[in-house]
Amino acid sequence: MTTCRFIPPYLVQQIASVQDDADLAHRGQSTLAIDEQLRRRRLIGPPRVEAVPGAASRDTGEDAWTIHTASNGTSLPGRPVRSAGEDKSGDVVVDEAYAGVVASLGLFRDEYGRSSYDDRGAPVVATVHYEQEYVNAFWDGRQLVFGDGDGKLFARFTKPVDVLAHEFTHAVTQHTSGFVYEGQPGALNESMSDVFSACVKQRLIGQSAAEADWLVGEGIFAPSVQGRALRSMSEPGTAYDDPKVGRDRQVAHLSDYVDTADDNGGVHINSGIPNRAFYLAATGIGGSSWEVTGRIWYAALTSGLGADADFAAFAEATVAAADETGVDSVREAVTNAWTEVGVEPGSRRSDAGRPSRPRRPRRRVAVRRSGGIAGMTTAGEVDLDTDPRSEEVRQLAERIDFASLAGSTDQPDRYVYAIDLEEEEFVVGEQALTPELSRLVSLVLDQPPR
Asked: Domain ranges in the chain?
């Protein structure tokens, strides 16, 4: 089971480390702590759905979904506020989430013949108004969850329809290829969500591939932020550049692949490579992105690739699907798209994509938080000899069984914590955070007293 977050961890970490705005840094740190706790939910079964919502049912073949509100708390799924077939609620966030679910289900049903995310008509559960000023959105392996944003850097996460479609597609990927959320497979997992969220957005407004802006999360940033969107599929690395949120770190070519221990091996950074390949293929083929090119990518996603497939394996699957169209120009466009981003379909897997784990023996405890839908990284360190936080940090570190918590970092768009204890480093997924580990992480990532 995977948990996927829209904001990459390195972006949230950047916000949490802002020096000249204590309130902003606190909100970033709070988001990181919440994300850690949520990772533990992956071990629990799906939320109970007492009845098929609204007029939809498995018997009629109609889609079923319910929008809930957490009422700015953390209890999931929360109180149901609007179900399939019901009139508008009057809450813009609820109604935006409703519209996003409709659009996402519609793409996969009408274009690819898929019944809900599991292809078995599973009711979709979505929760809005999660926590206070929560700056993220995620699929936790069971349901969709959306924060309201902080109003200072981020707007509400239901505002761009492709944010909801991005998280919904993580659910589809979980029930198809199941790409492991690390390295190249993890970057493919992220890319699938960007690809089909772009298809949802363009289909909804009736744009061709040539007409589209190819921005993911346009409108997610508040007006004060210097950025067009969270990602650009046509020009990875150019979506934003702002003093507080940093610069878009996505790469567009395999030669620039980032091999890192953060963000599950840079899944939000390196996804720019397959993202651009889809953009090139869609504009090369022409027409709408969701028809020919989208069907080729969907065929590859559902072709039985292994969960650890790399870029080259997925590229080969798309070329095979393009072959099935019987149109030479389509196959050529898909092949050329991958070649242009440095990926040769079917070539042998490179060493890129498996993060190294550095060891730095020092009397200190260090934490790096990465991942999240924005892929940002935040780091902090406590010197055990001089830092005023050292006594509590030392006591926590002695009590926590890090080895038993390590791993479980495979939930898309969730935060990942690399905890360096002098001579050993443990990588822990947000879902595995215990209250004591959450406190430790918060202490280390917080700015020391002045």
From this structure: 51-173, 183-340
Query: Distance of CA 68 to CAs 15, 59, 111, 150, 288, Å?
Result: 28, 24, 27, 20, 33
| Closest by CA position to 334, among listed 292, 291, 287 | 292
Conformational region of residue 377, where left means phi above 0, alpha means psi within -120 to 50, and beta covers everything else: beta
268: annotated active-site residue: yes
Q: What is 183-340's CATH superfamily? A: Neutral Protease Domain 2 (1.10.390.10)
Q: Tell me the residue ranges of DSSP E strands in 89-233.
A: 124-130, 137-139, 144-147, 215-216, 231-232
String of DSSP letters for 5-28: ESB-HHHHHHHHT-SS-HHHHHHH
User: Is residue 68 among the annotated active site residues?
Assistant: no
Q: Which of 36, 96, 131, 167 is catalytic?
A: 167
Kindly name the residue from 111, 182, 268, 430 that is annotated as catalytic. 268
Handedness of CA 154, 236, 126, 143 (dihedral sign): negative
Spatial distance between the Cα atoms of 264 and 280, rounded to a whole number of angstroms? 26
Q: Per residue in 187-206, pLDDT tens?
A: 999 999 999 999 999 999 99
Look up the pTM and report it. 0.77
The closest alpha carbon to 373, from 181, 223, 234, 124, belongs to 181
Per-residue confidence (pLDDT) for residue 11, from 0 to 100: 74
Check: CB of residue 155 under 8 Å from CB of residue 222.
yes
Amino acid letter for position 319:
V
pLDDT tens-place string over residues 323-341: 999 999 999 999 999 999 9
Looking at domain 51-173, does it have CATH number 3.10.170.10?
A: yes
